[in-house]
Protein 1
Amino acid sequence: MKSVENTPRDGFSSRFGVIAAAAGSAVGLGNIWRFPYVMGENGGAAFLLVYIVFVFAIGIPVLTSELLIGRKGQSNAVHSFRNLAPGKPWHIVGFLGVFCSYMILSYYSVVAGWTMHYVYLAVANGLKSLSVADLNSTYVAMTESPSISIFWLAIFLIATGLVVWGGVEKGIEKYSKILMPLLFLLIVLMCVRSLTLPGSIKGLTFLFEPDFSKLSPKVIIEALGQACFSLSIGMGIMITYGSYISKNQSLGRTSLSVASADLLIAILASVAIFPAAFAFGINPGQGPGLVFVTLPNIFNQMFGGYVFAILFFILLFIAALTSSISLLEVVVAYASEEWKIKRSTATMGAVIGAIVLGSLSAYSAVIFDLFDKTSANILLPLGALLVVLFIPIVLKKRGAKEELLASGGKAQLFGLYYFIIKYLAPIAIVLIFLQQFGLLDWIG
Ligand code: TRP
């Protein structure tokens, strides 16, 4: 049995490994099925500009704060808070993260399972020459057949479990270092295919042509919300990963790299999807419809579509896998360290539980939506807000500075970071909250 006190904790062995794992968590379906459409609809390059400002001004400081709490606390999402604020109720923030991660893991696996089913369909030529109506009924049949969903989500969760079972260095880091470059390569290939289609330029124009008149306050807060969601903050993931980062790696620079990779993949996904859709005169839309109906339709009409359909669903599968690895790790780190059980036992238990919970989401769209809405719209911003408050209230300027400047770094930059965390970030997150509950609708 692993004793928490006596054995040195497992951890990441390289800078690239840290970035690959954290970027793997951040790059998910949000980058591929949401960002492109939201950008295209809301002012193109104008939206992108606002989005980038928020990634830098809010996203990176909050991400840095989570990594900081983990590395300073040197434990899982719950115990890091206990170590840093003994006797205070802050560890509840950690519980919230573990709970939220597990909830997301269960329903996320349903969608991830669908991507695997579509890899299978694409390979078996089961999507070829289907009309849009037939593609739609293929998709609906899958979502309405719990047995297909449960079969694939179980396989997906077992695959996730096998990676996490291996530990941080020999599991998560090892696979992230292979999967993330592969994901990047696949998305670049998709971009090349998309841009070489005749008429693709219209899609680029739609995507990037700046239209500042679209930037209503509502759109601006939407950009802020998407920036935070896309970085997977507010649920203990980056706290857990932060605890595995060596003391001589700069956390600020790590966050910068992770956020840049996340942004780059979102932009590449846009270039892979929109020009191709416009080349065939199709409005791509967003969400599951885009991925499981519209894109297969586009692949059917494109030269080389058979291969690109397979590659695309493999890409989605990888994006989902590296995200679910991070979700499972939050739960496994907590269970194995707090309950002093073996990592393998914790992993197995968590995977079995997630298969059961995931099956509920596969059976019932109501449960699926409940898990999705509660986690993304309520728990995630709440978690992020509490993390941000924790820094000035508990760690204070000195505690935060000590950890962030441990590996060198500029004092002025720290000043800027602290100002953002103390004043701007809490306001920003409260605005996201209000927006999600429709309380800002009056500003249009
Ligand atoms: N960052 C993910 C995306 O862009 C979404 C997400 C938010 C997520 N929180 C997460 C994914 C936690 C996995 C785990 O799609």
Protein 2
Amino acid sequence: MLILGIESTCDETGVAIVENGIKVIKSELASSAGIQAKFGGIVPEVAARQQLRDIIPALKTVLGGNNPRKIDAIAVSSGPGLIGSLLVGVETAKALSFVWNKPLVGVNHLSAHLYSNWIEKQATPQFPLLGLVISGGHTDLVYMKGHDDFKILGSTLDDAAGEAFDKVARFLGLPYPGGPQIENMASKYTRAKHVNPFPKSMAKKDSFDFSFSGIKTAVVRFVEKNKILSDKSGIPQVCYFFEEAVIESIANKITSALDQYMVKSLAVGGGVAANVKLRRKIASVAKSRNVKVFFPNKGLSVDNGAMIAAAAFFAGKPSDPLTIQAESGAYFS
Ligand code: KG4
Ligand code: ZN
């Protein structure tokens, strides 16, 4: 089964054709991150306008050489996300579904991040599983007994993990998106013998909710107190300890969840899952609990069209193309 997946929830425009939820036939990703970099974050209107420019060329690239008649269904990320951005993808998908007379599947962007772990893998996650979505807008821990059977164990109480990376980067004068910038800066700090001055997490120990704003505030105080911004040489150290504090707090939650829930797999998705040290730490936690861990292949941690097609294949239900709505405030579903 060939599914055309369309993703436009935030600043990316992703289009991909995926066969049986696992094999990418063709994929294209356009991003306005370069344009947003000068604003230090995403300006929704700028993102949506760029997506309007990007979506048709991306579709043309993906469809070039692939007969639309062979596509069995269209899948689109219908939420959560920025409303202007979502509308670009949703309305394009509706129009294609109507003109081609193909079924349309609305996909939840958050669960789609977990479905990146089914794409182009030798082995795929097994149920029951723990799913961790760590992106720019969300941090969710879910327990899934099957494709259609999940329970949200915890979410962030304040900033999302990626949002904390982005805000700290912006404060330090690093461009958007902050995650890769902080990861890169942190790798330049080699004298890691100091004690980490930042708290691991402010969220309650007995809950699976996350909290990152305490770490962020501690970074701001530390930077101001030590005048890090006037002599930039301290920035790699701040990035190192900030990254470590975020990773430790995520790893602690995963450890408690794995102790409480008997699962076969741990699937991680979302932009922050691209972080190499985070992968290493989570992999060691999973190994210590005898659980197989899955991370998306290269390029599939961040937003992309292929994960939307994969989610539709494994867990999607066709919707009436003319009634499907962009839902900016949708929760994990
Ligand atoms: O999943 P995603 O592409 O978009 C959302 O759905 O939000 O995630 C983007 C987020 C940004 O906050 C970005 O800074 C973060 O993922 N990110 C990273 C890394 N690469 C991207 N965070 C930490 N380390 C990275 N290597
Ligand atoms: Zn995302």
